[in-house]
Amino acid sequence: xxxxxxxxxxxxxxxxxxxxxxxxxxxxxxxxxxxxxxxxxxxxxxxxxxxxxxxxxxxxxxxxxxxxxxxxxxxxxxxxxxxxxxxxxxxxxxxxxxxxxxxxxxxxxxxxxxxxxxxxxxxxxxxxxxxxxxxxxxxxxxxxxxxxxxxxxxxxxxxxxxxxxxxxxxxxxxxxxxxxxxxxxxxxxxxxxxxxxxxxxxxxxxxxxxxxxxxxxxxxxxxxxxxxxxxxxxxxxxxxxxxxxxxxxxxxxxxxxxx
Length: 259
Fold this sequence. Notes:
Elements: H1 10-18, H2 26-36, E1 41-44, H3 51-67, E2 77-80, H4 84-97, E3 105-108, H5 115-123, E4 127-130, H6 132-141, E5 151-154, H7 157-162, H8 166-174, E6 181-186, H9 191-200, E7 205-208, H10 231-242, H11 254-258
Parallel strand pairs: 1-6, 1-7, 2-4, 2-5, 3-4, 5-6
Helix pairs in contact: 2-3, 3-4, 6-8
Protein backbone atom coordinates (compact mmCIF):
# COMPACT_ATOMS: atom_id res chain seq x y z
CA UNK A 1 0.00 0.00 0.00
CA UNK A 2 1.13 3.54 -0.78
CA UNK A 3 0.96 6.50 1.59
CA UNK A 4 -1.35 8.39 -0.76
CA UNK A 5 -3.97 5.67 -0.25
CA UNK A 6 -4.30 6.36 3.49
CA UNK A 7 -6.22 9.63 3.25
CA UNK A 8 -3.40 11.80 4.58
CA UNK A 9 -3.35 15.53 3.88
CA UNK A 10 -1.44 17.09 0.98
CA UNK A 11 0.98 18.73 3.42
CA UNK A 12 1.88 15.40 5.01
CA UNK A 13 2.17 13.60 1.68
CA UNK A 14 4.54 16.29 0.43
CA UNK A 15 6.75 15.86 3.50
CA UNK A 16 6.65 12.06 3.20
CA UNK A 17 7.65 12.28 -0.45
CA UNK A 18 10.59 14.52 0.41
CA UNK A 19 11.71 11.93 2.95
CA UNK A 20 11.84 9.41 0.11
CA UNK A 21 9.06 7.11 1.34
CA UNK A 22 6.41 5.61 -0.93
CA UNK A 23 5.12 2.36 0.54
CA UNK A 24 3.83 1.93 4.08
CA UNK A 25 5.14 -0.69 6.49
CA UNK A 26 2.78 -3.23 8.11
CA UNK A 27 2.54 -1.27 11.38
CA UNK A 28 1.81 1.95 9.47
CA UNK A 29 -0.84 0.27 7.34
CA UNK A 30 -2.65 -1.00 10.43
CA UNK A 31 -2.10 1.89 12.84
CA UNK A 32 -2.63 5.02 10.73
CA UNK A 33 -6.31 4.42 9.78
CA UNK A 34 -7.18 3.51 13.38
CA UNK A 35 -5.51 6.60 14.82
CA UNK A 36 -7.21 8.79 12.21
CA UNK A 37 -10.54 7.37 13.38
CA UNK A 38 -9.73 8.49 16.93
CA UNK A 39 -9.46 4.97 18.32
CA UNK A 40 -7.32 4.03 21.31
CA UNK A 41 -4.55 1.67 20.25
CA UNK A 42 -2.41 -1.07 21.78
CA UNK A 43 0.30 -1.77 19.23
CA UNK A 44 3.03 -4.39 19.31
CA UNK A 45 5.95 -3.19 17.22
CA UNK A 46 9.69 -3.30 17.62
CA UNK A 47 12.24 -0.63 16.71
CA UNK A 48 12.84 -0.44 12.97
CA UNK A 49 9.27 -1.26 11.94
CA UNK A 50 8.33 2.33 11.09
CA UNK A 51 6.20 2.69 14.22
CA UNK A 52 7.22 6.33 14.80
CA UNK A 53 5.60 7.41 11.53
CA UNK A 54 2.74 5.06 12.43
CA UNK A 55 1.64 7.43 15.17
CA UNK A 56 3.30 10.71 14.12
CA UNK A 57 1.54 11.05 10.75
CA UNK A 58 -2.04 10.49 11.92
CA UNK A 59 -1.38 12.54 15.07
CA UNK A 60 -0.32 15.51 12.93
CA UNK A 61 -3.34 15.12 10.67
CA UNK A 62 -5.75 15.02 13.60
CA UNK A 63 -4.11 18.12 15.08
CA UNK A 64 -4.45 19.81 11.69
CA UNK A 65 -8.18 19.06 11.66
CA UNK A 66 -8.69 20.09 15.28
CA UNK A 67 -6.80 23.36 14.82
CA UNK A 68 -9.23 24.39 12.09
CA UNK A 69 -11.80 25.00 14.83
CA UNK A 70 -9.39 26.31 17.48
CA UNK A 71 -6.32 28.25 16.38
CA UNK A 72 -5.03 28.90 19.92
CA UNK A 73 -1.57 27.49 20.56
CA UNK A 74 -1.48 25.08 23.49
CA UNK A 75 -0.19 21.57 24.12
CA UNK A 76 -2.47 19.22 22.23
CA UNK A 77 -0.30 16.09 22.03
CA UNK A 78 2.05 14.46 24.55
CA UNK A 79 4.48 11.72 23.53
CA UNK A 80 6.24 9.93 26.41
CA UNK A 81 9.48 8.06 25.66
CA UNK A 82 12.05 6.28 27.86
CA UNK A 83 15.28 8.08 26.86
CA UNK A 84 16.59 11.44 25.72
CA UNK A 85 17.96 9.80 22.56
CA UNK A 86 14.52 8.55 21.59
CA UNK A 87 12.99 11.91 22.48
CA UNK A 88 15.38 13.62 20.06
CA UNK A 89 14.63 11.04 17.36
CA UNK A 90 10.85 11.32 17.71
CA UNK A 91 11.03 15.11 17.86
CA UNK A 92 13.00 15.14 14.63
CA UNK A 93 10.40 12.91 12.97
CA UNK A 94 7.60 15.24 14.07
CA UNK A 95 9.45 18.20 12.56
CA UNK A 96 10.26 16.39 9.32
CA UNK A 97 6.71 15.17 8.73
CA UNK A 98 5.12 18.38 9.99
CA UNK A 99 7.37 20.82 8.13
CA UNK A 100 4.43 22.17 6.11
CA UNK A 101 2.13 22.43 9.11
CA UNK A 102 2.06 25.30 11.64
CA UNK A 103 2.88 23.22 14.70
CA UNK A 104 5.65 23.71 17.22
CA UNK A 105 7.30 20.76 18.99
CA UNK A 106 9.60 20.62 21.99
CA UNK A 107 11.71 17.77 23.36
CA UNK A 108 11.84 17.68 27.16
CA UNK A 109 14.45 15.48 28.87
CA UNK A 110 16.96 15.60 31.69
CA UNK A 111 20.72 15.96 31.62
CA UNK A 112 20.46 19.49 30.22
CA UNK A 113 19.44 22.86 31.64
CA UNK A 114 15.72 23.23 32.24
CA UNK A 115 15.71 26.99 31.54
CA UNK A 116 15.69 26.84 27.69
CA UNK A 117 12.83 24.35 27.91
CA UNK A 118 10.86 26.72 30.13
CA UNK A 119 11.51 29.58 27.71
CA UNK A 120 10.24 27.56 24.74
CA UNK A 121 7.16 26.41 26.65
CA UNK A 122 6.28 30.01 27.49
CA UNK A 123 6.29 30.88 23.79
CA UNK A 124 3.72 28.17 23.15
CA UNK A 125 4.02 24.67 21.69
CA UNK A 126 1.58 22.16 20.24
CA UNK A 127 3.43 18.87 20.71
CA UNK A 128 5.61 17.74 23.62
CA UNK A 129 7.99 14.77 23.38
CA UNK A 130 9.22 14.01 26.89
CA UNK A 131 10.86 11.59 29.26
CA UNK A 132 8.75 11.05 32.38
CA UNK A 133 11.26 12.34 34.94
CA UNK A 134 11.92 15.74 33.40
CA UNK A 135 8.24 16.17 32.57
CA UNK A 136 7.46 15.74 36.28
CA UNK A 137 10.06 18.41 37.06
CA UNK A 138 8.12 20.84 34.87
CA UNK A 139 4.81 19.84 36.44
CA UNK A 140 6.20 20.37 39.94
CA UNK A 141 7.54 23.79 38.93
CA UNK A 142 4.24 24.58 37.17
CA UNK A 143 6.07 25.48 33.97
CA UNK A 144 3.90 23.28 31.77
CA UNK A 145 0.14 23.03 31.25
CA UNK A 146 -1.19 19.68 30.06
CA UNK A 147 -4.87 20.47 30.53
CA UNK A 148 -5.43 20.71 26.76
CA UNK A 149 -3.83 17.40 25.76
CA UNK A 150 -6.02 15.57 23.26
CA UNK A 151 -3.66 12.73 22.34
CA UNK A 152 -1.28 10.75 24.56
CA UNK A 153 1.34 8.42 23.10
CA UNK A 154 3.45 5.99 25.14
CA UNK A 155 6.31 4.92 22.88
CA UNK A 156 8.41 1.88 23.84
CA UNK A 157 6.25 1.45 26.92
CA UNK A 158 7.96 -1.81 27.87
CA UNK A 159 11.31 -0.03 28.13
CA UNK A 160 9.79 2.69 30.28
CA UNK A 161 8.46 0.06 32.67
CA UNK A 162 11.81 -1.79 32.67
CA UNK A 163 13.52 1.49 33.61
CA UNK A 164 11.19 1.99 36.58
CA UNK A 165 9.08 4.81 35.17
CA UNK A 166 5.68 3.31 36.00
CA UNK A 167 5.10 5.58 39.02
CA UNK A 168 6.15 8.66 37.05
CA UNK A 169 3.82 7.67 34.22
CA UNK A 170 0.89 7.28 36.59
CA UNK A 171 1.61 10.70 38.11
CA UNK A 172 1.51 12.24 34.63
CA UNK A 173 -1.75 10.47 33.81
CA UNK A 174 -3.43 12.06 36.83
CA UNK A 175 -3.01 15.59 35.44
CA UNK A 176 -4.23 14.82 31.91
CA UNK A 177 -7.80 15.38 30.70
CA UNK A 178 -9.93 12.26 31.02
CA UNK A 179 -11.26 12.69 27.49
CA UNK A 180 -8.33 12.00 25.16
CA UNK A 181 -7.01 9.53 22.63
CA UNK A 182 -4.40 7.07 23.96
CA UNK A 183 -1.82 5.18 21.89
CA UNK A 184 0.47 2.61 23.52
CA UNK A 185 3.36 1.11 21.54
CA UNK A 186 5.43 -1.72 22.98
CA UNK A 187 7.80 -4.36 21.62
CA UNK A 188 6.38 -6.93 24.06
CA UNK A 189 3.08 -7.42 25.86
CA UNK A 190 4.09 -8.43 29.38
CA UNK A 191 1.58 -8.77 32.21
CA UNK A 192 2.63 -5.33 33.47
CA UNK A 193 2.04 -3.79 30.04
CA UNK A 194 -1.40 -5.41 29.97
CA UNK A 195 -2.22 -3.90 33.37
CA UNK A 196 -1.09 -0.46 32.23
CA UNK A 197 -3.11 -0.79 29.03
CA UNK A 198 -6.21 -1.80 30.99
CA UNK A 199 -5.90 1.34 33.14
CA UNK A 200 -5.00 3.68 30.28
CA UNK A 201 -6.86 2.63 27.14
CA UNK A 202 -10.55 2.92 26.37
CA UNK A 203 -11.92 0.05 24.26
CA UNK A 204 -8.60 -0.21 22.38
CA UNK A 205 -7.89 -1.92 19.10
CA UNK A 206 -4.93 -4.28 19.44
CA UNK A 207 -2.50 -4.81 16.57
CA UNK A 208 0.64 -6.92 16.45
CA UNK A 209 3.22 -6.89 13.68
CA UNK A 210 5.83 -9.13 15.32
CA UNK A 211 5.59 -12.49 17.10
CA UNK A 212 4.72 -12.02 20.75
CA UNK A 213 7.69 -11.78 23.14
CA UNK A 214 10.26 -13.13 20.69
CA UNK A 215 14.02 -12.85 20.47
CA UNK A 216 16.03 -12.32 17.32
CA UNK A 217 16.21 -15.39 15.07
CA UNK A 218 20.00 -15.30 14.96
CA UNK A 219 20.44 -15.55 18.74
CA UNK A 220 21.64 -18.97 19.91
CA UNK A 221 21.92 -20.07 23.54
CA UNK A 222 24.62 -22.46 24.74
CA UNK A 223 25.58 -23.60 28.25
CA UNK A 224 29.17 -24.57 29.15
CA UNK A 225 29.50 -26.40 32.50
CA UNK A 226 32.88 -25.30 33.84
CA UNK A 227 34.72 -25.06 37.14
CA UNK A 228 34.50 -21.58 38.68
CA UNK A 229 38.28 -21.16 38.62
CA UNK A 230 38.45 -21.83 34.87
CA UNK A 231 35.66 -19.56 33.65
CA UNK A 232 37.99 -16.79 32.50
CA UNK A 233 40.21 -19.31 30.73
CA UNK A 234 37.24 -20.81 28.90
CA UNK A 235 35.92 -17.36 27.94
CA UNK A 236 39.30 -16.35 26.55
CA UNK A 237 39.50 -19.61 24.60
CA UNK A 238 36.02 -19.19 23.08
CA UNK A 239 36.71 -15.60 22.03
CA UNK A 240 39.93 -16.64 20.31
CA UNK A 241 38.55 -19.81 18.74
CA UNK A 242 35.47 -18.07 17.31
CA UNK A 243 37.34 -14.85 16.45
CA UNK A 244 34.60 -12.79 18.09
CA UNK A 245 35.15 -9.09 17.44
CA UNK A 246 32.44 -7.75 19.76
CA UNK A 247 31.53 -9.44 23.03
CA UNK A 248 29.22 -8.41 25.87
CA UNK A 249 29.98 -10.22 29.15
CA UNK A 250 27.62 -10.14 32.13
CA UNK A 251 29.01 -10.84 35.60
CA UNK A 252 27.37 -11.29 38.98
CA UNK A 253 29.36 -8.55 40.71
CA UNK A 254 31.39 -5.43 39.95
CA UNK A 255 34.44 -7.18 41.43
CA UNK A 256 34.00 -10.05 39.00
CA UNK A 257 33.81 -7.63 36.07
CA UNK A 258 37.05 -5.90 37.13
CA UNK A 259 38.87 -9.23 37.29
